[in-house]
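User: Sequence in, structure out. Go.
Assistant: Echoing your sequence, followed by the C-alpha cells.
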Amino acid sequence: MFKGKQETVALYGGSFDPPHIGHLAIVEEALKSLGINRLIVVPTFLNPFKTDSHHSPDERLKQSNKLFGKIPKVLVDDYEIQEGKATSSAKTLRHFQKRYSVKYIIIGADNLDSITKWYNFNWLNSNITWVIATRAGYKLDTTALQKFKILKVEMDISSTEIRRKLMNLDERIDRIVTELDNKKAEEIEAFNLEKVDYIVERVVLANSLGGKHASSLAQHLKDKLKPLGEEFLHIDESDDWVVIDMGDILVHIMSSEARQTYCMEEFLMEISNRKSNEEIGL
C-alpha cells in the first residue's frame, strides 16, 4: 500500500521564555506567506546556547499552547521538552521528517550571527529552506544560507522585555536582594516609595565589604538580571559608593563608612513617613 501524501510543514523552535505577541506575529505571517499545511511550534527544553531559562519547560509549553494552540494549522509539539535536555535542530528535523515533509525552519534575524555554529549546520542548510523573521537592529546577512525566504514582521518585542513586564516590583526586589546576599553584601534594606514623590518607586541599600567588592556586586547584578529583562540604564561608581539606575529602582551599594556619613536610611524613612502623615491628615 502507498502511504498518504505527507503534509508540508514549517518548524518554529525556540525557548519561548515566555511566548509573546512578537512570536504570534511571526506565526501568523508564516501561515500567510509559506503555503504550508501545518506550522509546528517546538519549545525547547533548553536552548543549546544557554545555561538556563526563566520559566520551566512545562510552564513554557503551557504558555505556548495557550498562545498558539487554537490557531488553525498550528501544532504545539513537546518533542524537545520530552527529550529532557538541549536538543539540536538537526535532531529535531530528523524526528519530524519521519512524519512530515519539512520544508522550512523559521528563525529570527538575531540567529544569523551564530547559525553556522549550529550542530550539523551543513546538513540542515542542504535539507531545508530557512525562513528569517526580520527584527529591528539586526542585519540580514544570509551569505551562509543556501535557500532562504525573508518574513517581514514589523513588530519587535523581545522576550526579555516581556519577562520584565511580567515581574512585579516585589518579585524584582526579592531577586535583587537574593543576588546581593549570595555575593556577601551586608545590611541589605529595601524601601517602598511608590506613594512618595520621589524619582523611583523602590530603593535598595546594601553594604559592600570594601575594596572592589561594590563593583563586583554591581557587575554580578548585571550579569544575573539583565538576561531576565532588567534594564541597567546607568552605573555610577566611586571608591566607596556605587549607584545602579534600573529605571524604577535605584540600588545603592556603599561602604559602611559612606552609609553612615550620608544617612541614606534616615533620608528615605523621612520622606516615606512624611507622605504617610499627609495621608492620615497629621
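User: And one key feature?
Assistant: The chain has two domains: 8-162, 167-279.
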